[in-house]
């Protein structure tokens, strides 16, 4: 539910000892530079179109990159849900091995908050992706949860190569979207007039 998501955000911003007081013992110096998650917050969990937006914005203002999977509710339009819908979140859709958007990858535009915002921001491999699994071993898995980590890894590499970028979310996003390989599809869910569309975002 939203309260637990916000607890997680608070810990990511300022970790505290297990069982400790987050307000008295939270330490922002130990906070994450970058997070990747597959959170979804539907109405049945007590969320509306703008739930978690303020939390995402606070993390961004603190210099933390919030990479979030777009969701697996495709192929319909306007299927991206919070918090991937937030302007401050960097949302990631999924493509298959051939580079085409997967059937399940959620699409924009964002209607749950009335903004009409174009989402996702980019797409990355999200079908038949080799992943470690609990208990040992590996499996080929599908989902935007497989795509998001590719982008989180890209951010980590960028920030390792140029530490001056750490916490500079705007520039980091501009580098990623500016170097993405643009893609198109027969149905772009209404976004056809700019570099970003509601299926591939700015591209691969």
Would you mind describing this structure in some detail?
With 204 residues, this protein is α/β, with parallel strands linked by helices. The protein is 26% helix and 13% strand. The protein has a four-stranded parallel sheet with strand order 1-2-3-4, with helices on both faces. Strand 1, helix 3 and strand 2 form a beta-alpha-beta unit. The longest helix has 18 residues. It starts with a helix and ends in a 25-residue tail after the last helix. The relative contact order is 0.15.
**Global shape:** globular
Strands side by side in the biggest sheet: 1-2-3-4
* Poorly predicted regions: none
Question: What fraction, in percent, of the residue positions are helical?
Answer: 25-40%
Topology pattern, helix = H, strand = E: HHEHEEEEEHH
Gyration radius over CA: 17 Å
Strand content: 5-15%
Structural class by sheet pairing and helices: alpha/beta
What separation lies between the terminal Cα atoms?
A: 32 Å
Q: Tell me the number of strands.
A: 6
* Average of pLDDT: 94
Number of helices in the DSSP assignment: 5
| Main beta sheet strand tally, sense and closure | 4 strands, parallel
Layout of helices and strands, plus pairs?
Layout: H1 2-13, H2 22-25, E1 34-37, H3 53-61, E2 65-69, E3 90-95, E4 122-125, E5 129-132, E6 138-141, H4 144-161, H5 169-179
Parallel strand pairs: 1-2, 2-3, 3-4
Antiparallel strand pairs: 5-6
């Amino acid at each position: 539910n939203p309260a637990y998501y916000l607890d997680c955000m608070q810990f990511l911003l300022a970790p505290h000892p297990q069982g400790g007081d987050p307000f008295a013992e939270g330490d922002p110096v130990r906070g994450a530079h970058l997070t990747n998650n597959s959170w979804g917050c539907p109405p049945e969990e007590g969320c509306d179109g703008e739930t978690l937006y303020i939390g995402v914005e606070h993390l961004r203002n603190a210099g933390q990159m919030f990479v979030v999977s777009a969701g697996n509710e495709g192929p319909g339009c306007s299927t991206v849900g919070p918090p991937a819908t937030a302007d401050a979140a960097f949302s990631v859709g999924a493509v298959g091995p051939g580079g085409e958007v997967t059937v399940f990858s959620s699409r924009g535009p964002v209607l749950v908050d009335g903004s009409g915002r174009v989402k996702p921001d980019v797409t990355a491999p999200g079908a038949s992706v080799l992943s470690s699994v609990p208990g040992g071993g590996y499996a080929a898995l599908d989902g935007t949860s497989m795509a998001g980590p590719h982008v989180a890894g890209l951010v980590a590499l960028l920030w390792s190569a140029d530490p001056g970028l750490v916490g500079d979310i705007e520039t980091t996003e501009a580098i990623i979207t500016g170097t993405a390989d643009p893609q198109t599809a027969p149905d772009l869910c209404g976004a056809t007039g700019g570099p970003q569309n509601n299926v591939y975002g700015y591209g691969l």
